[in-house]
Structures are given as C-alpha cells and as structure tokens.
Specification:
Layout (H helix, E strand, L loop, with lengths): L1 H17 L9 E2 L2 E2 L18 H20 L11 E6 L5 H12 L3 E6 L11 H11 L2 E5 L3 H10 L4 E5 L5 H15 L6 E5 L4 H9 L6 E5 L8 H14 L3 E4 L2 H5 L4 E4 L11 H7 L7 H4 L7 E4 L10 H4 L6 H20 L12
Parallel strand pairs: 3-4, 3-5, 5-6, 7-8, 7-10, 8-9, 10-11
Antiparallel strand pairs: 1-2
C-alpha cells in the first residue's frame, strides 16, 4: 500500500515539476485558456450543467489547493470573511467534515444546520429560507432528500447553491472520484470505469460527468434498479457527443471486463431501510471481489464513496493496494474546497494545469 501511494504521489510531483517552466497565466489545453473559464456566482446542482472545461477547471483548482496547502504547507485565506450555510436533512461524515474543515481552512466560517435547527419546508418555505440565507451568508451547501428542494433554493437565492447530495445527483462525490483517478493514473481520458451496483444518485453524476472527461462508462445494475431513464438518454447523448462508450447490462462480470476502475456504492441508501431484505436478495452476485477483478485490466483499481458494507465489496478488495477509497474520501475535502473557491472567487491556480 505504501509503495503504491508513494508511486502515485511521485507521478503527480514529477508531472508538476516537468511543467514548472510554463507560465500558468493563459495556460491552455486543447486550445482552451482555462484561466479564462470562470464559475464565479454559479450554482452546482448537477454536473449536467457544467461544460468539460468548467469541470476540468474545478479539478485543477482542487489539485492546486491540495498541493499548495497540504504539500507546500501554505496558508491560504481565499475565503476570509465569507460564510457557508450547511443544510443537512440527512446525516453525513464526509460531506460535513470536508465542508466544515475545508471552508475554515480557507479562512471562512461554516454554519452547520440540521432540520431541527432551521424551519426549511416546515414553518418556512424553501423560497423564504433561500432569501433569508442570501442575506446572511455567501454560499449554501444543502444535503437533502428531494432534488426539487435544491431547485427551489437555487431559484430564489441570490448566492450560489451547492448540491451536497439529493435523491437524483451527488456531484461533489464525483469530483472527488475523478481527482483521485487523475492523481493515480496521471490522466483521465481513455479510462474505462465500471459501475456495479444500484442505479442511484452517485451513478447519475458519473453519467453526467464521465463522457465530458473522455471516460468510458460500463454499468451493471440488477433488473429493476437501472438508472433514471432521462439520465440514461442524456448520458447517451453526451457519449455520442464526446466520443466515449456507454454500456448497460445486468451482468457484473460483463461490466468488469477489461475495465480500469471498479466502482460500487451502498445498496441500501438512507430512507430505504425498509427495503433492505429485498434489496440484498436482488443484489445477490453483485459483491465486488478479486474474482470480479480477474476479468478487469491488470492494474485495475477500486472506488467506493463510503460508508461501505461487506456485502458490497469484500475485505480482500476493500483493504487491498488496489483500493483508493481513503484517498477518495480525503479528496472530498479538496474538491469541495476547489468548488467553493471557484464559485466564490476568480482564483487562478499557481500550479500547472494537470493532464486530462
């Protein structure tokens, strides 16, 4: 594990070092000047709304902040004097900690709000809540049950709204996943990611993002657990537009074949506890094991957004050198920081553009 982590970090360091002679001002990739890409004032409810260049810019900012703060030990107060309202209808470990610690590390003030702390949708409408919070803080991150709640907040707010998770999408998770893969492989374009599990909000976000980064996506879900049809149609359109492959099957081994990355998630999300017994039966045969990986590429890796249960992936895979889950979890912090900085400022990264 240590050798693999050292190797991955060494690849990133060498890549940065080899580009130090280039000026980041006006740095371009494929003819696009990424320093001219601005997201300031935007919301992020779904990566469906973001162009390939905008997603790459967020990942670049995230990697830059990680390098400057973690590795160079710099103190950056990019969000000094700003505050974030963190609305949590659902409990959380990674989303809460990444947002609180990340915003504070950049000099800002995080405010954690549960459904017991505010009147959202109970004694006060989402419309009124959005207008009130717009006068108190600079940005809102909301982890909610219904995606329509986010849409209502975004419609009425005069400040950016970030989707911290909804029943339809989980964009901040996917940003962390792709930063992790970029760090490990050195680039993203041409990778094949295989999703083996439920057709849920995390998968939906993969489908809205992967084609824009040149990533092929293979999906295996049990019958009755396929992704939302409108998301499938949009993903098919994006794959055609960006020249990537998208396939859907109910056979986990078919999806895993010749893949670079195997990914799964919980089979029983919050709010589905009463369905647990039936879901475990329906997902029989979907556990990711070394046998699953035997048909993937020799250097295959594994991702899981956590929390993990053994029926989804066994210990042999989860705690193996192939597993990137804990780097993935840490990158939730750097990517939420990168996203918030991008939505609130015109920050230009100091490190060279990473390879996509």
């Amino acid at each position: 594990m240590c050798l693999r982590l050292f190797s991955a970090h060494n690849v990133v360091f060498k890549s940065l070092k080899s580009h130090l002679s280039q000026s980041v001002h006006g740095f371009s990739c494929g003819g696009v000047s990424f320093t001219s890409v601005s997201l300031k004032g935007r919301s992020c409810l779904t990566l469906k709304d973001f162009s390939p260049d905008e997603i790459k810019k967020v990942l670049w900012v995230s990697g830059d902040l990680k390098h400057r703060i973690k590795h160079e030990k710099q103190c950056l107060t990019l969000l000094q004097g700003k505050s974030v309202a963190m609305i949590f209808e659902k409990r959380s470990t990674r989303t809460r900690m990444s947002t609180e610690t990340g915003f504070a590390l950049l000099g800002g003030h995080p405010c954690f709000l549960t459904s017991q702390d505010i009147h959202l949708g109970v004694n006060e409408s989402s419309t009124d809540t959005a207008r009130v919070l717009s006068g108190f803080c600079d940005i809102v991150l909301a982890r909610v049950y219904s995606h329509t709640t986010l849409e209502e907040l975004e419609k009425e707010a005069s400040i950016p709204i970030i989707n911290g998770l909804s029943d339809l999408y989980h964009p901040i998770q996917i940003l962390a996943d792709f930063l992790t893969l970029q760090e490990h492989y050195g680039s993203l374009s041409g990778l094949t990611v295989s999703w083996i599990g439920d057709g849920n909000n995390v998968l939906h976000s993969f489908m809205m993002c992967a084609p824009k980064l040149g990533v092929h996506l293979k999906i295996a879900t049990p019958k009755g657990y396929t992704p939302d049809q409108s998301v499938i149609e949009e993903a098919q359109r994006l794959s055609t537009q960006h020249g990537t492959r998208l396939s859907l099957t109910s056979d986990p081994m078919e999806a895993a074949h010749n893949s670079d990355v195997l990914v799964t998630d919980t089979w029983v999300s919050m709010g589905q506890e009463e369905e647990k017994k039936r879901r475990l039966q329906d997902f029989a045969g979907y556990q990711i094991t070394m046998q699953t990986g035997s048909v993937a590429k020799p250097d295959w890796t594994f991702l899981h957004c956590l929390p993990r249960k053994k029926e989804e992936v066994d210990d042999q895979v989860f705690y193996s050198p192939r597993s990137l889950v804990f780097q993935e979890a840490e990158n939730r912090k750097w990517t939420i920081m990168g996203l918030m900085v991008s939505l609130l400022t015109d920050y230009t990264p100091h490190t060279p553009m990473m390879k996509f």
